[in-house]
Amino acid sequence: MKHFLFALLCTTGMSVTGWQTNFETAKKLAKEQDKLILLNFSGSDWCGPCIRMHREFFSNDQFTRMADSALIMLNADFPRDKKHQLSKEQKAHNEALADQYNPSGKFPFTLLLDAEGKVIRSWDGFPSMSPAGFSMEIKHLYESRNKQKNDPL
Known about the structure:
One of its GO terms (molecular function) is isomerase activity. The chain has 153 residues and is of the alpha+beta class. The chain contains six helices and four strands.
C-alpha cells in the first residue's frame, strides 16, 4: 500500500514537499520566491535507490523544512509500469529535461539549479551522506548564493 501511494504521489507530481512537474513553472516560482530548484530524475516504480531517496531524504522532516524555505522541487519521473505511465506531454517534457540535464540517463540523479536553470551542484546516484548532511549542504549553498547576491563586492 505504501508503494502504491508513493507511486501515485510521484505520478501526479505532488508529494509531501509539493513537487512541480513543469520546468518553466519551477523557474517562474523560483524567481518569484527567490529560491533554488532541486531537480530529481527518478524511476518511481522501478528504481530502488530512487524510491529510497524519496522515502529517506525528501520525506525527512529536516529536509522538508529546509525545502519549504529554500527550494522549488521539480520531479522528472520515468515510470515503467503501465499503470503509472505519464501523459505523452509529461513524458516528452521529462525527456527534454533529461536531454539537457541527464543525457547519461542516471537514476537517481539530482541537481540544484538557480532560477535560470544553471547547475549549481549535482548528486549522482543515492547520496553517500545522511539526510541531515544533504539538507545542510543544500541550505549552505542556498545561503551562500543569497550572500553573494546581496553583497556585490
